[in-house]
Design brief:
By secondary structure, this protein is α/β, with parallel strands linked by helices. Helix content is 33%, strand content 29%. It has a six-stranded mixed sheet with strand order 2-3-1-4-11-5. A five-stranded mixed sheet has the order 8-7-9-6-10. Bound molecules: 1-O-pyrophosphono-5-O-phosphono-alpha-D-ribofuranose. The site of 1-O-pyrophosphono-5-O-phosphono-alpha-D-ribofuranose (PRP) has 14 residues, from strand 9 and helix 7.
Length: 215
Amino acid sequence: MSNDYLTIALPKGRLLEQVTAFFAKYDITIKEESRKLDYYDEKNKLRFLFVKNSDVPVYVNYGVAALGISGSDVVYESGFEFLKLGILPFGTTRICLAGFEKDKDLYFKAYSTGSFVKEIKIATKFGKFTTTYFNEKDIPVQIIKLTGSIELAPILGLSDFIVDLVETGTTLKENNLSVIEELGKTQVEIIANPSLYKLDYKKIDNIVTIIENMK
Ligand code: PRP
């Protein structure tokens, strides 16, 4: 039955709620049923996969899903190449360097005088982005790769700073950390597997048009 369906990988968690609400407005149903990890919208012939955020690009890259909805940060970190078919009108987030307020001045002083004598330790999920960002500024960094609860790292002395997504700022605030510098912005992208797109572009364009028109 699944051959008739267009498979779309969706990220579980906060973004999934927004995606579900967005699609529901246009009569596309996404239902997470208890622990079941996929859902068929029979009316629109869509199959949704509920996967971990960072795994969306993996499913699309290997062709298990034709389309994926993913943060641009996660797509960039994956290192895979996709066709980018659209941007959703929600979920834009800041990617920030954060740490203790007391280290802010130290950071900016060293930044402006170029006097970073030793590497700064940064805990992050976004190793590729962070390395590239600071390399371009000639600031030596040591990346400590974590996959969640990044805010704990400076508190426990595992790192000097973190690079992470900041949406409401609540997580930083509740852990006595502050934004030191905004490094960029992320957006929610519709990505496609290039080979599957060629095979099935009519069906894919159709769904992307529906999504685009939702804006
Ligand atoms: C993300 C991010 C921050 C938090 C920021 O984590 O990594 O920890 O949200 O949001 P806020 O500014 O609204 O508090 P997520 O909830 O995805 O969980 P994680 O710790 O597993 O990364």
